[in-house]
Amino acid sequence: MTTARQSTPTPDPLTTSDASSVHGGDRWSPRLWGTLVVLCAALFLDALDVSMVGVALPSIGTDLHLSTSALQWVVSGYVLGYGGLLLLGGRAADLLGRRRVFLIALAVFAAASLLGGLVDNGGLLIAARFLKGVSAAFTAPAGLSIITTTFAEGPARNRALSIYTTCGASGFSLGLVLSGLLTSAGWRWTFLMPVPVALIALVVAIRLLPRQAGPERGSGGYDVAGAITGTGALLLLVFTVTEAQSAGWASLRTIGSLAAVAVLAAAFLLIEQRTAHPLVRLGIFRNGGVSRANIAALSIFGSYAGFQFIATLYLQRLLGWSALEMALGFLPAGALVALSATRMGAIVDRFGTARLLPIGVLALTAGYGLFLRLDEHSSFVGLVLPSMVLLGIGFALAFPSVNIAATNGVADEEQGLASGLVNTAFQVGSAIVLAAATAVITAGSGGGESPQAQLDGYRPALLLITGVALIGLLVTLAGAVLDRRKAPVSVPDYDYPSVPAEVLADR
Questions:
Q1: Which of 152, 173, 304, 441 satisfies CB 3.0 to 4.6 Å to 457 for a cystine?
Q2: Which residue from 103, 129, 137 is spatially nearest to 422, judged by alpha carbons?
Q3: Short-list 283, 298, 291, CA closest to 414
């Protein structure tokens, strides 16, 4: 948050008129709006990149002569860099300065996107994807913590976070649509399209983003051991669950890797308890709202990632939809999320995250449940559209609410940590549930390609992700109950002069 300053020829990005907005004023200056737009653009690109490459994979494999296992790493490389380094990215934003971390990471994202669109080698393409994931691991928590430290907790922050997170959800949902359009012109455009957007955002961000006064660099040491063990545990976990499908869940490699994850995680927790300046202050989890929000985030994003994977296979392989048809099939969900962006702040202010979050997760769960009716001849109107409408409503309500809940009640100096935690929950949930869904599909189908064999794989996988969503629903319902119990009881004021004298005498 900016501080009072003397008049200088080169003022900080936030002007005096912005200060009222920072503290919750109703009117936001053009400069403050510009700051929010830049942060939204970066998150939109991060989310877009998660989903956009999926439709282009067949074309990439054919052009670069990649095997199925190598092609998987075009997706997994991004997830590995993103999910594995988010905690480090969030804490780096607190320690090194949120503005500095955001600008450097956004520049790396633009460079990696350009590299990915120009390479003619599968290994270099995977490396570019990993680098993009690493950059997103720093831009996402830095951007979120800039918002939570720029806008005061309450209506101003709720409005800003609603717009910001809805842009992220829109990028994820619309990535499939854009990918279908771009892939028809050539898969390289899915990598090159973000480059000019990222560069424009970078130029504007240099001018508009608020400078953080006094980052913690001089206030203590760095938790190097915690960074190594924590980041190592996350990287190895994401790598293990991603590779488990090909290596086998019961294989010695998978079991050994999971054991190593447990050892690194235990070492990390021990280090965090004893170090004076931890990477993750474990006391943050004593905030019940933060803990429940992170569990909900894991469930929400994990279940949706699994659903998107199943639906993509089902619509293209079994029903024979083209990439563009499938992308347009997902459009209603993305459109609902995008259209809700400007209204969600007011809705959150009126009803509160404790109410909206369970409703949103319930809509997601119902959407997955309806999709269980899939068969060999399902139609768009009969099967796909009802689920997409429910998923759009669910994401519009749940995604902003879970981000707000995950950062409320957290001190400014730990907003990067809180942002890193919730983004880590999103990515780790995505990796774990997607790997589990893939394993269930393979086991259920028995490797068969007939329509019935495919359905035998898709249905139990859909049951799995519906169960994951139900876990999130139970957690958010528990939060709503606890929130109601903690709410202050309003006692009416008595106008004693109007009360009969005998009643007062009895008292």
A1: 441
A2: 137
A3: 283
Q: Rounded to the nearest 5°, which phi and psi values hold at 230?
A: -70, -50
> Quick one: pLDDT at residue 212?
64
Q: Tokens standing for 19?
A: 């200060």
User: Can you count the helices (H) and strands (E) in the chain?
Assistant: 19, 0
Quickly list DSSP for 88-129.
HHHHHHHHH-HHHHHHHHHHHHHHHHHHHHH---HHHHHHHH
Distance CA 103, CA 469 (A): 35
Residue matched to tokens 């700051």: 35
Largest CA distance in the chain: 94
Alpha-carbon span 254 to 45, nearest angstrom: 33
* Residues 23, 1 contacting (CB under 8 angstroms): no
DSSP single-letter state for residue 284: G
Flag whether pLDDT at 198 surpasses 90.
Answer: yes
Local structure of 12: helix, strand or coil: coil
Compute the distance between CA of residue 31 and CA of residue 13 in angstroms, rounded to an integer.
8
Rounded CA Rg of the chain: 24
Q: What is the pTM of this model?
A: 0.75
Residue 228 dihedral angles phi and psi, to the nearest 5°:
-70, -50
Closest CA to 61 of 51, 114, 53, 317: 53
Give CA–CA dist 241/35, Å, rounded: 37
Mean pLDDT on 81-103: 84
Tokens 């892939």, located at residue:
183
pLDDT (tens digit, 9 = 90+) per residue, 428-462?
888 788 878 888 887 888 777 888 888 988 999 99
Query: CA–CA separation, 208 vs 99, rounded Å?
Result: 10
The pLDDT confidence band at residue 217, using thresholds 50, 70 and 90, is very low
Integer Cα distance of 466 and 171 in angstroms: 23
